[in-house]
Structure formats: structure tokens, C-alpha cells
Design brief:
- The protein is mainly alpha-helical and 333 residues long.
- It has 18 helices and no strands.
- Helix 8 (126-142) packs antiparallel against helix 9 (146-159), helix 10 packs parallel to helix 12 and helix 11 runs antiparallel to helix 12 (201-216).
- The longest helix is centred in the middle third of the chain and has 18 residues, at 103-120.
Length: 333
């Protein structure tokens, strides 16, 4: 972060009007979780006729609680985009809808995004279309529509057969749903893809899936051993977030509530610099932190995290069992 700030200062001295400066400053402000400043800088870039870092800007206005500004920014980005960029813009709106508990519009956005990007028909768009489909699958899983989530994960693999995250999601969903035979076949297909790949990325996702398989089959110690192999190898914020959620579940299953709490806390409030990660993991982690704080005899902390969870999804358009439980526990506390 210090090196990034030093570089931006140097660029500003050389050319104060270079748009890279505001682009970088926006990214740095978001990384420091100063979301209001990141949103302000991006709006300034738009006012000057520039093109901001849209993903960071849109995530920042949501996290700063600027809902009206978020809606306006999303519509502006969508209206100014065409083709693949339009599909990606609609996917960003879907992410905003998940943040605000608007699950049905989010699912519609991810559907539309996948369709638009796929229609472009270029090989380079396959990864983006698969990402939209995976966001669709994760959202379905979050609201309890498990069979549909599994189908959506399969569709992501059809779109991009080489996408390791899509293979991971399908296997994870199948094992968690108790469909062990299908899960084993999905794991075998992933292993075959990994053998044929020249990229190191699939190996980490494969290790993560083996950990989730062990956990689903009732072996949390084996799951933790697999997850331990990812230490230092998960610089990707996405892998890191999935790993922490799996670690929390594995530690809790093995009876170590303190370690589970630590893992879920890091999933909910990552100590690293901010990067947008799936809200379908981050927000439920708040609920798990609240549960564990309560179990460990920390009612004040439990109240705080139940409230944070309900602030996000307490008024969602789909009321999940977790929301009902959080509301009941908060009232009891």
C-alpha cells in the first residue's frame, strides 16, 4: 500500500491531469476501506468526463451505504456500455442487489449478464460469462434453492470447461447436498482437467474441494489438513475467502469454536486490503460469527454481529432460515 501511494504521488507530480491518478487513488481508498472517499474520487472522475474503476466504484458506493447513488451509478454504467461490457455492468448490478438483499433481481441480472456476454461469441468472453453464471449459482445456494444452484454451476462449466472455480463450486455443492456419488464424479472430472491444465490455478481450487469433500463426509481433521496446504498459496482473495469459510466449518465440526470464530471473522472482515469478493460468502460469515460469539458466552459481540447480518439481509426479498434464526436470537439476547 505504501509503495502504491508513493507511485501515485510521483505520477501526480509528473502529470496532475493523468486519469491514472484518480483511478489509482480510488483503488487505494477502497483498499483502505475508506469507501466514501473512493466513491467521491470516482464521482470526480465521472464529472471530468473520465471512466472510473467501475467495479471498485460500485462496490464502494454500496459499502458506504449510498443506496440511491448506487442505483444511479449502476444505471449510468449499464446505459453507457455495449456488448461484453454491458453484460459485465449488469453483473455488477446483480452483486449490488445481493448486497442489499434483493435476491430475485440479482438472479435476473446474473441471467441477463450471462446471456449478453455469451452472445458476443468470443473465446475471451467465456470466463466472464462463467463468472456471471457462478454468481447466479452462489445466489441460488444462498437462498436455499440447492438443486437449481447445482444446475447453474454445471452450466458455468459448460460455458468455460477450463474454469477451476466453476468445477470447485459444482463439487462443493454436490458434497454439501449429500449427493456423494455425483460429487465424486465431479471431483474426478476436476482432477482430469487439472492434469491437462498448464496453469497453477486449478491445483489450489482442487485442494479446497478435497477439503470440502472431507468435511462433508464427516472428517474435519482431514479437511483441516488439506486446507493447511493452502497456507501462503492463496494470494487470490477469492480462494482466501472460500478457504476461511471452509476452515470455520471444519474447526467448528472438530469442536474448536475459538478457531472457527477466528476463521469466520476473517471471512466477514478480511484483515487484508479490500478486494471485492462474493457477498454470498462474506455476509453469511457475519451470522456464523454471531452464533459462535453467543456460544462462547460473548453476548455483546453476538448482538453486534447478528445486527450487522440483519442490517444487510434482514429485510431481504427471500427470508432464509438463517435470517429468522438471527432475528430470534437477537431478540432473546
Amino acid at each position: 500500500l505504501a509503495a502504491a501511494e508513493k507511485l501515485i504521488a510521483r505520477y501526480r507530480e509528473e502529470d496532475p491531469d493523468d486519469r491514472v491518478i484518480i483511478f489509482g487513488e480510488t483503488r487505494i481508498a477502497a483498499a483502505k476501506r475508506d469507501f466514501e472517499e473512493a466513491a467521491r474520487l470516482a464521482r470526480e472522475e465521472i464529472r471530468r468526463g473520465g471512466d472510473p474503476n467501475w467495479e471498485v466504484f460500485l462496490a464502494s458506493v454500496d459499502r458506504a451505504g449510498l443506496d440511491d447513488a448506487s442505483r444511479a451509478a449502476h444505471e449510468r454504467y449499464i446505459d453507457s456500455s455495449t456488448g461484453q461490457a454491458e453484460g459485465q455492468a449488469i453483473s455488477f448490478r446483480g452483486t449490488s442487489n445481493v448486497w442489499n438483499g434483493r435476491f430475485e433481481p440479482a438472479l435476473a441480472d446474473f441471467d441477463e449478464s450471462t446471456l449478453i456476454i455469451t452472445r458476443v461469441g468470443q473465446s475471451v468472453t467465456a470466463e466472464l460469462a462463467a463468472k456471471s453464471r457462478m454468481a447466479h449459482a452462489l445466489t441460488l445456494w444462498t437462498v436455499g434453492r440447492r438443486a437449481e444452484a447445482i444446475d447453474s454451476a454445471r452450466q458455468a462449466i459448460t460455458i468455460d470447461p477450463w474454469h477451476p472455480t466453476a468445477h470447485y463450486l459444482l463439487g462443493r455443492f454436490l458434497f454439501e447436498a449429500g449427493r456423494e456419488g455425483e460429487g465424486e464424479r465431479a471431483l474426478a472430472a476436476f482432477e482430469e482437467m487439472n492434469d491437462e491444465s498448464h496453469s497453477p490455478d486449478p491445483a489450489d481450487w482442487l485442494t479446497l474441494l478435497r477439503a470440502d469433500r472431507a468435511l462433508a463426509l464427516g472428517n474435519p481433521r482431514q479437511a483441516l489438513a488439506e486446507l493447511g496446504r493452502l497456507e501462503g498459496a492463496d494470494a487470490d482473495p477469492l480462494i482466501r475467502t472460500f478457504r476461511r469459510v471452509s476452515e470455520g466449518a471444519a474447526h467448528e465440526a472438530s469442536g474448536d469454536l475459538e478457531a472457527a470464530l477466528d476463521a469466520y471473522r476473517k471471512a466477514a472482515d478480511p484483515p487484508e486490503l479490500f478486494f471485492p469478493t462474493p457477498l454470498s460468502l462474506e455476509i453469511p460469515a457475519l451470522y456464523h460469527v454471531a452464533r459462535l460469539e453467543e456460544a462462547l458466552g460473548n453476548p455483546d459481540a453476538a448482538r453486534e454481529f447478528y445486527q450487522r447480518y440483519l442490517d444487510r439481509w434482514g429485510e431481504a426479498d427471500v427470508e432464509t432460515p438463517e435470517v429468522m434464526e438471527a432475528r430470534a436470537r437477537l431478540a432473546a439476547l
